[in-house]
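Question (not urgent): is this output format expected?
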Amino acid sequence: MSISRNVGKILVGGVAVVALSGVGSAYAGGAGENLYSTTTGASSWSDEPNSSMAIRDKAEDGDSVYSLYDRRYNTGMRLENWGGVGTTLYTSGDYANYISKVTACVNLNNSPDRCGPDDRPGDGN
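Got this back:
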């Protein structure tokens, strides 16, 4: 009888620790807000719950666009959109490894690329 009571206390204590640490909330809410970055000619976004993100070419200028983005467990990723004006390209969805940063950029030949501001959860953008 004493052993089962101790096991019950341990299980209840473990559940309380997980609940207070917020481990479960990351899966439920993703990054916690919509993320959006724009620059002349490109927009990149990830809507709540941030399982995927998109990059859209907005200018008829012949320049490709891309998004620099991070996921919960992977950083420094890049999604290229070579489709031309009006096209939108999406990443695959992953609720556990949600999008945590987006940056829209235009690939300029013979010049430094033009990028919008990073947008991360809680940064006020």
